Every structure is written in C-alpha cells, then in structure tokens.
Amino acid sequence: MLVHLFTIRACLSHRKPDGGCLGFPSTLMMLCLIDAFGTYLRGEEVVIDGKGQKITRGEPFRVLNHALFGLKLTSRQIKTIEQSYRNRLAHNAMIDTNSWLIPSRLRKND
C-alpha cells in the first residue's frame, strides 16, 4: 500500500505543461487503495447516516467513513462514489457484461 501512496503523491505533484497534474491515474490508484482498505478493514463498524454499520464484502467503500479517512459521508454519497468512479477492470480484473475487447493491429498513423 505504501507504493500506492507514493504513486498517488507523485501523480498529484507532477505538473503538466498546462499546469495540471496526473489526475486520472492518481484517482484510479486512490480508489484501488480505498477498495483495498475496505477489504482489509472488513467487519469494522463505521457510522453512516447516524447508524453503526459494518464494512462488508459487498460494501467496501463504507471504509470512507472509517476513522482512517475521517469522513462523514452519507450512504448516498458513498454509493455515488463507488458506482461512478470504481473501475471494475482495475479492481476486479473484470469487464462488464456486454463489453468487448477486440484485438487489432494499430496502423502507423494511429
């Protein structure tokens, strides 16, 4: 996990010519790390919407409300983050149903 943190910091510290950072890779790495913490801390209790709830296998992003992160997100906010930004290919080595990868040769001008 230390490598993840180092990579996230390097991506956020890097400056592109337009002044931006490497936001996409840092975000993807951060979400992978959040998912990993959710797996590691499975069974721990967090407070969501004023109620104690356990971090479960099906709800690893509940870890965002763990003391480790210090957030107080609502259930809806946690679900929005998970559904909008979690990448199934990066996190589970899965491609969604009805998605395809088709091998092809790149042309010289591509």
Brief account:
With 110 residues, the protein is mainly alpha-helical. It has helices at 2-13, 23-40, 75-85, 88-92; strands spanning 45-48, 51-54. A hairpin with a 2-residue loop joins strand 1 (45-48) and strand 2 (51-54).
Order of helices and strands: HHEEHH
**Over all CA atoms, what is the radius of gyration?**
17 Å
Q: What are the low-pLDDT stretches, counting only 5+ consecutive residues below 50?
A: none
Q: Biggest sheet: strands, sense, closure?
A: 2 strands, antiparallel
Q: Work out the number of β strands.
A: 2
Question: How would you classify the helix and strand content by structural class?
Answer: mainly alpha
Overall residue-averaged pLDDT value: 84
Query: What share of residues is helical?
Result: 40-55%
* Shape type: globular
Distance between the termini: 36 Å
- Count of helix runs: 4
Give the strand order of the largest sheet, numbering strands 1, 2, ... along the chain. 1-2
What share of the residues does DSSP label as strand, in percent? Answer: 5-15%
